[in-house]
Structure formats: structure tokens, C-alpha cells
């Protein structure tokens, strides 16, 4: 099965000899070498508004600074909370001893 054509071809037309492509937005002629990288770069640098339309949905997924640097519970707080939830939900009796040297068996 042949690969799908690149989205970049919406903005270009290949020449008859297939060695160049013409931009449909500005009529610039781009040499074709081994792929669509030169075509993508032309769109990216010469027509950024066209390139940004493709990228704009991803921008909404980016986290804000408040989300990135929000205070997070320490790992001991998380473990304590998980243990407390387990004890409460499973009705497990908890033995606590102030003597840390004593082994509970």
C-alpha cells in the first residue's frame, strides 16, 4: 500500500518534470530533493499563519505556569493518605506503638 500524500501538498503544485513545486500561496518555486522538508519549511517561514492553523489545537493542551508549578503533596503525605484510605475502606485495625524498638507480630 503506498504511503499517504503529505498535507503540505495542499499548498503546492508539482512541475511537469517533477523537479520543482510551485507554492499556491505566493508562486515561489521550490526545488524538490528527497521529500517534503523544503516545502514544509517554506510554509513554516514564509506563511506562518497557514502553519499556525495546523498547530493551534495543540497549544490549548499546553499547561499553564500555575499548573506546572502548583504545590503538590509530598510523597509521605500521599502515602499517609493512601494508607488512611485503605484502613477506613477495608476496616483494617491499625496497631500503633510509641515504642519503635518493639516488634509487632
TrEMBL record:
Coiled coil residues, start to end: none
Q: Report the superkingdom from the record.
A: Eukaryota
Enumerate the PROSITE patterns for this protein. Answer: ZF_BED (PS50808)
Pfam families in alphabetical order? zf-BED
Tell me which residues make up the BED-type domain. Answer: 3-54
The record's listing under SMART domains reads: ZnF_BED
Look up keyword Ribonucleoprotein and say if it applies.
no
For this entry, the protein name equals BED-type domain-containing protein
From what organism does this protein derive?
A: Dreissena polymorpha (Zebra mussel)
Q: What is the lineage of its organism?
A: Eukaryota, Metazoa, Spiralia, Lophotrochozoa, Mollusca
